[in-house]
Amino acid sequence: MDLLENIDNVFVFAPHTDDGELGCGGVIARLIEEGKNVHYVAFSTARESLANPEDGDILRVEVKNATAKLGIPNENLHIFGYEVRKLSYVRQDILEEMVRFRREYPMDLVFMPVVHDTHQDHWTVATEGMRAFKNKPLLGYELIWNNIFTSNCFINLQRDHVDAKVNALREYRSQAHRTYMNEEFIYALAKVRGTQIGMEFAECFEVIRWIM
């Protein structure tokens, strides 16, 4: 039984632009292909961590281009400007924004970081997400360089879904120097996760809450 079959409205919560594509870009591509309504929420454009401060809002531009490559409509992209590495300082604001989304939009499934993520911003979004969406199915996505991770949910992907993920991540030219943006790594991880379930490709998640 495909548990995604009865899911129509999906939210992806990303602490920073690019986290959502890295964690579940292949699944986003699959969901869009299957006609699902996907929203993407990024809480920080991480402008303070850019090597060149003159780049300013480059990540705001890049996330628009990347999510468009995955097929997310512009009206389903929600970008906030909270300061990178300081999301814990505004956790109540983040919780209130999450609650607002829950009230204003239908929501059948939520993707977010796992609670055991060593990045302070990722942890904040995960813990506030558990509070805001305690009555929703929650899957924590894999950011393997940060996670202490329980791999207990796998979503099968086709090659074109992984290709779409890679093409989306190519839009993050300002982040191309980061090791986790390496295309061989992206394909290899999808291959490893697929091999674990006897498929060609997959993405892996931690079940935080599943409601039957």
Describe the overall structure.
There is one protein chain. The chain is of the alpha/beta class. It has six helices and seven strands, in the order βαβαβαβαββααβ. The protein has one domain (9-209): Rossmann fold (3-Layer(aba) Sandwich). It is globular, with a radius of gyration of 16 Å.
Structural class: alpha/beta
Strand order in the largest sheet = 3-2-1-4-5-7-6
Major sheet details: 7 strands, mixed
Number of strands: 7
User: What Rg do the Cα atoms give?
Assistant: 16 Å
Unreliable residue runs: none
Count of discrete structural domains = 1
Query: Which architecture would the CATH scheme give at its second level?
Result: 3-Layer(aba) Sandwich
CATH topology: Rossmann fold
The CATH class name reads Alpha Beta
The string of secondary-structure elements, in order, is EHEHEHEHEEHHE
Described by the principal axes of the CA atoms, the overall outline is: globular
Query: N-to-C terminal Cα separation, in Å?
Result: 13 Å
Strand residue percentage: 15-25%
Give the name of the CATH superfamily: LmbE-like
